[in-house]
Fold this sequence. Notes:
By secondary structure, the protein is mainly beta. The protein is about 5% helix and about 50% strand. It has one helix at about 85-89, and strands at about 1-10, 20-25, 25-40, 45-50, 60-65, 70-75. A six-stranded antiparallel beta barrel has the order 1-4-3-2-5-6. The longest helix has 4 residues, at about 85-89. The N and C termini lie far apart (about 40 Å).
Amino acid sequence: MHRAARRRRDPGEGVPGDGAVVVAGDAPAGRITSARRSARLGCGIGLAWVPNGLSELGSKIEIRDGGRTFAAKVVDPAFYDPEGQRLGA
């Protein structure tokens, strides 16, 4: 079973396109379903389908898109406002 994983990256790195490949070693292991730059967070965020072995929180994943390689990390789905403070404001 695969699960969706959120990813977050460092500022200035660019954003891979939808459908970019998540790799494990040199083998394809998943796909980016959507990725965009977050103006509020100042970095790229996105969703990817990855195998269970790569979907644990804190797992580092590699994404390849058009000759570029991106480093990413699986983060909690509520990484932006985990306490819900903005929702209640």
